[in-house]
Amino acid sequence: MHNQDNINNEPTTKSNGQIIKVVLIDDHEIVRQGLATMLQKEPDIRLVGDAPDSVSGLDIIEKTNPDVVLLDVQLGNTDIDGFTLAKKIKNKYPDKMVIMLTGFDSELYLTEAVRSKVDGFILKEHPRLILACAIRMAYSGISIWDTKILYRALTNISRSKENIETTPLVHEKFGVDLSEKEKIILHLLAKGYSNKDIGHKLEYTPSTVKKYVYNCMKKLGVSNRTQLAILANNNGLK
């Protein structure tokens, strides 16, 4: 975890004197370093701190009081994902603007970002000017969403509200391929339980929970825990 106040030079202020304070939470150090370098070139934006995980992220937010939080969707070194952390941030600090960052062109992620009531969702591949624009827009109270996948996400949300028979193939997989224990795991994932919480509730070891989660991912054709939780939630297992 880093507090950037003693690292960056004082930026030149805009004509109105406003500086947008930003905190970055991402589990990849190279990403944090790259984004920090990019933001240094923006005179009205100051990166006041960065963190690799949820615990240190909440701590740096408390210490630096940022205007905008840039938050990675996937936090591989913690029990909770970026969406769960976003909800924690918005609940504790409702005045903070949260922008989700991801390297994956996934409508599932954007759908969950909408449900998490964050203030924006953009791909990491975008250039510096787009990122800076997103920060300024969020600071001004305007949400920004990646239009490449927004339509697919809205379609996903609409379908999730339709009758359960509209997704028979998914439910066929749930009914045929998954064991009862795996269905219980999916149910808890859809309710927002972390692996640690699932282990406590079911009295499973961490390795056992991970095994069931991995089996569910493999059977349902998703690549990570977040997609699995969204799939379970979208298909009535919550």
TrEMBL record:
Molecular function (Gene Ontology), one example: DNA binding
Modified residues (4-aspartylphosphate): 72
GO biological process, one term: regulation of DNA-templated transcription
Domain of life of the native organism: Bacteria
A Pfam match: Response_reg
Gene3D superfamilies listed in its UniProt record: 3.40.50.2300
Keyword DNA-binding (UniProt): yes
Keyword presence, Coiled coil: no
InterPro entries: CheY-like_superfamily (IPR011006), NreC/VraR/RcsB-like_REC (IPR058245), Sig_transdc_resp-reg_C-effctor (IPR016032), Sig_transdc_resp-reg_receiver (IPR001789), Tscrpt_reg_LuxR_C (IPR000792), WalR-like (IPR039420)
Protein keywords: DNA-binding, Phosphoprotein
Domain Response regulatory: 21-139
Database matches in SMART domains: HTH_LUXR, REC
Domain HTH luxR-type: 171-236
PROSITE patterns xrefs: HTH_LUXR_2, RESPONSE_REGULATORY
PANTHER family assigned to the protein according to its UniProt record, in alphabetical order: TWO-COMPONENT RESPONSE REGULATOR
Name this protein carries in UniProt: DNA-binding response regulator
Taxonomy of the source species: Bacteria, Bacillati, Chloroflexota, Dehalococcoidia, Dehalococcoidales
